[in-house]
Every structure is written in C-alpha cells, then in structure tokens.
Design brief:
The structure is a homodimer.
Chain A: H1 6-21, H2 28-34, H3 39-42, H4 49-72, H5 78-95, H6 97-105, H7 112-138, H8 147-159, H9 161-167, H10 173-186
Helix pairs in contact in A: 1-2, 1-4, 1-6, 4-5, 4-6, 4-7, 5-7, 5-10, 6-9, 7-8
The structure holds a DNA duplex.
DNA sequence: GTCTATACCGCGATAGAC
DNA sequence: GTCTATCGCGGTATAGAC
C-alpha cells in the first residue's frame, strides 16, 4: 500500500464527486472544498479539469483492453471466454466502482485525442466480445439468437454493475461471480 | 397526429440535446439555437430549465408506473409477468428513446418535489419487479439464484436498451421482443 | 411571441505573494 | 504548496420594446 500523491488524491476525490453528480455538474471549487483547500491550489498538481477526467476514464479503459486481450488469446471454448469476460468486469467493478460511473456517463466530455483513444478502445472491446459470441454460435455452444441481442444483454448488465454494487453494499465477490455467470449464461428458468 | 404546441416542441428539442450531451452540458442558448429563436423567447413557454427536465423525466416515469401496475394486477404466472415487463420496456423505449437518456442519467438534477416523486416511483417499480421474481422462485418457475442478481441483470439490460436502440437503427420491434425475452429468460446455452 | 439589452452569478484558469 | 485576488466567459433569467 503506497501513499497517494496529491495528484492521485485529487483524482480520487474527483471520481467520487463525478460519480454522484456527473462531470459537468462538479466544479473545481467543489473538488477543492472536498479536499479542504482552495481551487487555485489544484492547478499545482494537474493542468485542468479535462486532465482529471481523462486520467479517470483512460486508466480503467486500459484495464478492460488488457483484460480482454488476455481472454481472447486464451485457448479455450467460447463459453469459457464469456465467463472470463464476466469475471473481468466484476473484478474491475469491485476495484474501480466510481471511475466506471465517469467511463459510462461522461466519456463524451473527453477532448480530441483522449476522446478518439477512448472510442477506439471501446469499439475494439465490443468487436472482440462480438467475435467470441459468434464463434460460440458457430461452434454450437451458444444458441442461435441474433448475436447483437446476446452481446447487448450481457454487456449492458456488466456495464451497469457498478451502480448495483454501490446500492447494495458489497456482496461477496465470489458469490456474485458464480450467480452472475449462471444467470447470464444459463438463464433463469 | 396533433400538432406540437410550442412548449412540446421545446421539450422535444431539449430531450434530443440532453440525450447527446447530458442535462448540465446543454444550455438554454443551445436549445434556442436549435429552434432558431433566442434564449429569452423560451421563457414565454416554460418557467425555466428545471421545468423542461422534469417534464421529460416524470412523463415517462409515469408510463412505467402505470404499465407495471397493470402487469402486477394480472392473473398469470410469474414468468408471464416478467415477459410483460420486458415488453413494456421495449414499447416505451421505442417511443421515448431520448427521454430515457435523461431519466437514466440526469434524474439526480431534478429538484425537491420532483426528485422525491421520481425516486419514489423508481423504488416502487423495483419493489414490484422484485416481488414478481420472488413469487416465481417460490412457485418453482424461476431458478433459485439470489433474487437481486436476477432483478439486476434483467433490469439493467432493459434500462440501457435505449442506447442500443439508437446505435443499431431500429430493428423490428417484434423480433426484438421475441429474442430479448428468450435471451433474458432462457439464457444463451 | 420574439426581440435586444442586461443583471447577476458561478465557472475554469492565471498571477503573484507568502 | 497554498493562498488571495482577479480575469474573461458563458450560464439562467428578467425587463421592456415591438
């Protein structure tokens, strides 16, 4: 456990506030007040509000990218890969719950380069997931529904997991993984 | 097809912009410009920005409330009720896609009375859905997973359906209903 | 019903003292 | 590294002419 640099502290406090009210509704003064300093002092550690947002979003977006690449490169069945993706989301959600709020809701407020980088990562991620599902359907492991319906229903559940995780105080991670994998893959009937 | 009043037009244009950038990132000037008038002119039709937001959100929230009450009062199996809830979400999504963006992302910017009313409606809605699922488990119609996991995975898919509906140009509603019901209830394997 | 003009405020950001 | 003071901008909203 290393201590947070002042910059990391700003990012952490900002992520918490962005999670509650959204990027645009949180002012530099709000962030400073929460740290018991003045807004002007923030600028000794970060270049501006934009930098805070991109640090929060791109850092966790890269975790998804790396995790997905690892899953894709594995030598296992499609269903096993889907399970791994579900577990990847759960692990990241547990560790970066508040950053995921910004990633889901405020990515469109990124600028230029950062926006382009994020959109590309998200598209690649979805494309990788789509391929896994299609392989599963071709191999007869997954039922022949419209692949987009499957992709969407799983992904939207995983993407909003952070909301649910916050609301109902941390359920045990392993129980969550087990039930979530079952519900998403095997259905409820 | 009745003509839109000027007020309805403002609400419609605002919903479109809120959907793209979020409530806080859209100014009264933005809304006015999109209507080819000046910002000051908006105030002859609405009391302020707040009123626009609550008209958008509360109108569609009431549709969910009414629809859910109808489902709950039906005399049918739990699974049949879950199917009806899924269809309710799909119908509302198709008709009010942009309002759902505000409902999902900007509800916290409602004020006082409106905020209270919205939160109550959402809690009641979730509680009704939870009861249906629990009844299904008790009756042996639904597998014995943690009810919250089932509730969450279905609801989060339905709540983000508006995003997907916008991205992949309107798929036929009936095909969507059929596959979505199957995927969510029967799973993918 | 829309306009111009304007009041008033809070925003992000900077300069310079300590 | 934090402060006070301040700049310039853009926000919501109102007043009053047309």
């Amino acid at each position: 456990m290393k201590t947070l640099s002042r910059k990391d502290e700003i990012i952490s406090v900002a992520a918490h506030l962005f999670n509650e009210k959204g990027y645009k509704a949180v002012s530099m003064r709000d962030i400073a007040t929460a740290m018991d300093i003045k807004a002007a002092s923030l600028y000794n550690h970060i270049s501006g509000k934009q930098e805070i947002l991109s640090e929060i979003i791109l850092k966790v977006a890269e975790e998804f990218t790396v995790g997905m690449e690892k899953v894709v490169s594995e030598n296992s069945s499609a269903i096993k890969k889907v399970e791994k993706v579900i577990e990847l989301h759960i692990d990241i959600t547990v560790n970066h719950s508040e950053a995921l709020a910004a990633l889901n809701n405020d990515w469109m407020h990124l600028e230029d380069e950062d926006l382009k980088a994020f959109v590309k990562m998200r598209e690649d991620y979805e494309e990788n997931f789509r391929s896994i599902i299609k392989q599963g359907i071709d191999a007869g492991e997954i039922k022949q529904y419209h692949p987009e319906v499957i992709l969407f229903s799983i992904l939207s559940t995983l993407r909003t997991l952070y909301l649910w995780n916050q609301k109902r105080g941390k359920l045990d991670v392993n129980i969550l993984k087990k039930d979530m994998v079952s519900v998403l893959i095997k259905g409820i009937v």
